[in-house]
Design brief:
- 2 copies of one chain form a homodimer.
- The termini of chain A are far apart.
- In chain A, 30% of the residues are buried.
- By secondary structure, the first copy, chain A, is an alpha+beta fold.
- In chain A, the strands form 2 sheets. The first copy, chain A, has a 3-stranded mixed beta sheet with strand order 4-3-5.
- Chain A has 2 domains: 64 residues, Orthogonal Bundle (Arc Repressor Mutant, subunit A), CATH 1.10.10.10; 55 residues, Dna Ligase, domain 1 (2-Layer Sandwich), CATH 3.30.1490.
- Strand 5 of chain A pairs antiparallel with strand 5 of chain B, so a sheet runs across the interface.
- Chain A binds a DNA duplex through helix 1 and helix 3.
Chain lengths: 144, 144
DNA sequence: ATGGTAATGATAATTCGTTATCATTGTAAG
DNA sequence: CTTACAATGATAACGAATTATCATTACCAT
């Protein structure tokens, strides 16, 4: 398997490379169809599965949303989920220092940090059309 | 609606109060049936929905899992998801200080921090029966 | 105690994301 | 150029979580 190099596979890899943010299968389909119009959703699922097994893609599980996928090998980072357009973005840096105290006997092996809010596009759109429901910061976020 | 005080409703509220951790509808059903045996799952879903609307319950969305619910009004905290038993626990304290830098125009309104690993029960069980797959810390967790 | 009706319980139906099926297509080895 | 068969595309099927349906139950104002 995965021995023939099809236009579909190329289009799918290009989609994830270009996007530079985690994509859902449906989102990836839209991006990839810009490269190869007749691409089907089944092929997208099949190839995502294969690319994850190959280690080329990594699943990104967002709370309350379906799984997104991003190209593997990036520096440690976290994710921002836009409530407006439902897109997920990468966030550079990390929530350094502090170490949460776990109850006795608990062993933690990994963690995830998510930010929620409005991306630049939705933030601007929101500001134009209504004055309410925008209580965000200004490029920075206080953590707790 | 929500004007009659049934044994089912009492049992459901007691279940969430006693558990002191976020419960899935199925988990909550098991707890509540200790108080009222003939409780059905449909009633659980109906009441969870009502209690969320009332603000008595809060949804807790865990990456890659179905939604859990916890009683509202608690101090700021985060969650620990046990890979062994799939239960979600509360974690006191927070990942203080640092502020991730967001791209221009992004506005963040909230955040979530998740820890993954093994709870005390699963950790002990794991240590007994096999020596592998436990690379956790000792009650503390380095963040990044 | 009685009765109107909110609430319940069993289960059918729905939704969403994903996987399976299978006839057809097109890559690439010979 | 052929040709085998990996891969695709359309869509059916699936599984899990949740919601809808509806006959029955039981809360509580009277």
């Amino acid at each position: 398997m995965e021995l023939r190099n099809t236009r579909q596979k190329q289009a799918i890899r290009e989609a994830f490379s270009e996007a530079a943010r985690p994509l859902s299968p449906e989102e990836a389909l839209a991006y990839a169809q810009a490269h190869y119009k007749r691409l089907g959703i089944a092929t997208m699922y099949r190839n995502i599965k294969a690319l994850v097994e190959d280690g080329w893609l990594l699943p990104v599980e967002v709370p309350g949303r379906s799984t997104r996928y991003e190209v593997a090998g990036k520096r440690h980072h976290h994710h921002f989920h836009c409530k407006g357009c439902d897109k997920v973005f990468e966030v550079e840096g990390c929530v350094a220092s502090s170490k949460p105290r776990l109850p006795r006997g608990f062993r933690s092996t990994s963690h995830e940090f998510y930010l929620f809010g409005l991306c630049s596009g939705c933030s601007a759109r929101n500001k134009q059309h209504s004055k309410i429901s925008d209580h965000g910061g200004r490029g920075e976020t206080s953590v707790c």
